[in-house]
């Protein structure tokens, strides 16, 4: 039990360090996409830039706007970070401290709870802009959780288990992507929408929402919300590789190849942000309810029949 607890704590620390340098990768990547350098003044090639940003944000004064409900207003960012780190319990480290048989059920429960921290951050700010941003973010998250749940269900039908370890072991000889390619495409788009990333960043539509649900946060509160968002992006990248390319974890070069795949999927989030303009909100809702949902249900029916035939 002590080893598993220490293993979980180490996973949390490594996730937070990864978040810091992923922000640097994003800023450098967006810089080169836009034909500029990005951060390159602090230290060697700008590598200590995330540490300098962290010192700046955490040393700023804690601003308490007059109209906010102060206690829940301060709790919501830390609740968001706590829930995003809870997902890393499912990470397959050496001493696996996940709920082995119900790992994906834990993922669905925790990701559903994260909606409340976003809603609370907007509601308790007592600002019309923050409330409008949080309502749009919650509607977007709840809508795309439907497609994410059904796509997860397709993987569970194929492999017959909710254990992430079992799903990865199952793919030693063949990846799920060869059966579920269209599901992978829809899963990635759903992940981008679920994490409120461009081009689906309607929670932070600067042109009409003045930064959305986090408008009243500064310093520590803003930094914690920022860390929670990027922690979710990195975990979604791990989950993409685990669900659709899982067997590579157990190849001869398992560690290097696995992390390269996770880095590539995480970089896709940056690439999408640099390539596409912001979508229209009504088209985003149309995409999930009129396009993705019927498609996922049809593919799910096909996979159910395929699993039945294979088990006959």
From TrEMBL:
Its main location: membrane. It is an enzyme of class 7 (translocase). Pfam families: NADHdh (PF00146). One of its GO terms (cellular component) is mitochondrial inner membrane. GO terms for biological process: aerobic respiration. It comes from the Eukaryota. The chain crosses the membrane at residues 6-25, 70-91, 103-125, 146-167, 173-193, 214-241, 247-272, 292-310. InterPro entries: NADH_UbQ_OxRdtase_su1/FPO (IPR001694), NADH_UbQ_OxRdtase_su1_CS (IPR018086). It catalyses: a ubiquinone + NADH + 5 H(+)(in) = a ubiquinol + NAD(+) + 4 H(+)(out). This is NADH-ubiquinone oxidoreductase chain 1. It comes from Sepia officinalis. The lineage of its organism: Eukaryota, Metazoa, Spiralia, Lophotrochozoa, Mollusca.
